[in-house]
């Protein structure tokens, strides 16, 4: 029988949190004393039966704290981990986290393998490349979100790496009669990418031609309003 997970129920808000679109009835953000959200990547992993599948996930630094907020029903959380080759670490994680989270409550977890493996008494000798945090509510819904530890995973299981938030404070908004775009310091511009404004912390999506999308659904399924702002 798997041990109960030990979660970090932290008091207070840590500096420089980075929000990202919600999944199902939960919203989440990565928080730490550094800017931990550094981009996204498509990662290939194996499930518990050995089947291979790919999933796009944020890339975060080791030790990042992720905060989940329950938007609807009471829920229980679970945590799994994968090694640097995308294989599940079989003696770590599961659905046994004790306690429930009510509507509006938060759950926080620190993605640091060295400390987490001790809590679980995992015998795995390597490093975790991916943490998976999910939840199930009492209405029967189950959701999960993976987080890739920056620099930990083998390059053979990563693809489509985007670091759209790195050096974001040096990017510049530009516009013409067609619309708005975000220019890099070298004069190139973002395409097919989310951009978070350092000034407002609001998220915008730059399309294939570089122009900010407005009043539409982004390619990854999120709505941006007439001002281009992602609507949670």
TrEMBL record:
Q: Fetch the Gene3D superfamilies from UniProt.
A: Cholin Binding
Signal peptide region:
1-24
What InterPro entries does the annotation carry?
A: Cell_wall/Cho-bd_repeat (IPR018337)
Q: Does the keyword Repeat apply?
A: yes
Instruction: Name the UniProt key words of this record, in alphabetical order.
Output: Repeat, Signal
Q: Which domain of life is it from?
A: Bacteria
User: Could you tell me what this protein is called?
Assistant: Cell wall-binding protein
């Amino acid at each position: 029988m798997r041990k109960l997970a030990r979660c970090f129920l932290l008091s207070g808000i840590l500096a420089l949190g980075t929000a990202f679109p919600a999944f199902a009835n939960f919203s989440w953000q990565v928080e730490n004393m550094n800017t931990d959200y550094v981009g996204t990547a498509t990662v290939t992993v194996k499930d518990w039966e050995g089947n291979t599948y790919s999933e796009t996930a944020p890339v975060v630094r080791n030790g990042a704290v992720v905060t989940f907020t329950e938007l609807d029903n009471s829920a229980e959380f679970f945590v799994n981990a994968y090694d640097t080759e995308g294989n599940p670490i079989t003696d770590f994680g599961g659905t046994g986290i004790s306690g429930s989270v009510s509507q509006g409550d938060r759950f926080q977890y620190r993605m640091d393998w060295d400390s987490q493996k001790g809590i679980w008494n995992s015998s795995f000798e390597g490093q975790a490349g991916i943490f998976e945090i999910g939840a199930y509510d009492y209405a029967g819904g189950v959701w999960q979100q993976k987080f890739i530890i920056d620099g930990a995973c083998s390059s053979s299981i990563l693809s489509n790496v985007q670091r759209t938030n790195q050096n974001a404070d040096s990017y510049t908004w530009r516009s013409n009669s067609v619309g708005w775009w975000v220019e890099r310091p070298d004069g190139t511009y973002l395409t097919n990418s989310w951009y978070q404004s350092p000034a407002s912390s609001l998220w915008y999506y730059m399309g294939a031609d570089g122009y900010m999308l407005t009043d539409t659904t982004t390619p990854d399924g999120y709505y941006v309003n007439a001002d281009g702002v992602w609507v949670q």
